[in-house]
UniProtKB/TrEMBL annotation:
Pfam families documented for this protein: Methyltransf_23 (PF13489)
GO molecular function: methyltransferase activity
The entry's keywords: Methyltransferase, Transferase
Name used for this protein in its record: SAM-dependent methyltransferase
Gene3D superfamilies tied to this protein: Vaccinia Virus protein VP39
GO biological process: methylation
SUPFAM superfamilies: S-adenosyl-L-methionine-dependent methyltransferases
Provenance organism: Sphingomonas kyeonggiensis
Length: 284
């Protein structure tokens, strides 16, 4: 039985037996739900080399088939960045240093830079990252988030907008973020798992886990961030329905203690509740 990447629990009943690759192709990847913390995740996981090849070459092609043209995709990213800055105006009083992890074509970074932020991005999609560098003049590393080379304490804000479902090793990525965050820095997570799942009518093969308000809170507590708020409000505008946002502030409290305390207080999902949640949203 696979163990849960969030809490380490090894009891995880199967809720779905397939994931959706395209509108007409399904794959035999099971979706399990951890009985301890409630994380919904795909099993088995692909090998790291597969992820590298997939995001380097295949992902953009699949995305292009099911989404709008690339230019309007970048325009949407810019608009979402603008909307996010408006939504967080009270919380982000002045520009600082921002890391956009899974920045894609760089549109959100572009919006932050226009407001005076010093921005750096990372994305494994070579074509999108090249667009960010060449068309927008942004500093973007083409690589997996697990492999980032970042100076300790380098960032005041780390943004992961709809990318945490995709990464291979969520623990390693969040550990990297904690190291790269300055004292009192902020981590903003946007989980788009439900949005994509509703859109596909199934859980997509490239969303390795589906993050809810509870699992976002637990992931933050496990990896050194104290949740400030978690909301379904559309902080980045109307174009990504089904997103959940979580904002955390960096703390020195690392390790499973804070997460386990929260689970003990009932901040968790359950296989029963998640099965009902999937049914309620028509996710087959
Ligand atoms: Zn778990």
């Amino acid at each position: 039985m696979p163990s849960c990447e969030l809490c380490g629990g090894d009891d995880a009943p199967i809720l779905r037996r397939r994931t959706r690759v395209t509108a007409t192709i399904d794959a035999a990847f099971e979706i399990r739900c951890c009985a301890h913390c409630g994380l919904l995740f795909q099993s088995p996981r692909f090998a790291p080399q597969f992820y590298r090849a997939y995001y380097g070459q295949v992902y953009r092609h699949l995305l292009a088939q099911e989404q709008q043209p690339f230019d309007s995709h970048v325009e949407d990213q810019i608009a979402r960045g603008e909307a996010l800055l408006e939504s967080l105006a009270q919380i982000l009083p002045r520009p600082g240093r921002m890391l956009d992890l899974g920045c894609g074509a760089g549109g959100m970074m572009h919006a932050f830079r226009r407001r005076g932020w010093n921005v750096v991005g990372v994305d494994p999609d070579s074509l999108a990252a090249a667009h960010a560098r060449d068309a927008l003049g942004l500093t973007v590393q083409t690589m997996d988030a697990e492999e980032m080379r970042l100076a300790p304490g380098a960032f005041d804000l780390i943004l992961i907008a709809g990318s945490l479902e995709h990464v291979h090793d969520i623990a390693r990525v969040l550990a990297q973020c904690h190291k790269a965050g300055a004292e009192d820095s902020l981590l903003l997570l946007e989980a788009h798992g439900l949005g994509q799942a509703e859109y596909l009518g199934a859980i997509g093969h490239n969303h390795r886990r589906l993050l809810t308000a509870n699992s976002l809170a637990l992931a933050m507590l496990r990896h050194g961030w104290t949740p400030q708020f978690i909301t379904d409000a559309p902080l980045s505008g109307p174009t990504r329905p089904g997103s959940t946002f979580a904002l955390g502030r960096r703390t020195e409290r690392l390790g499973p203690g804070p997460m386990e305390a929260a689970i003990g207080l009932g901040i968790r999902d359950t296989p029963e509740a998640m099965a009902a949640w999937l049914d309620r949203h028509g996710i087959g």
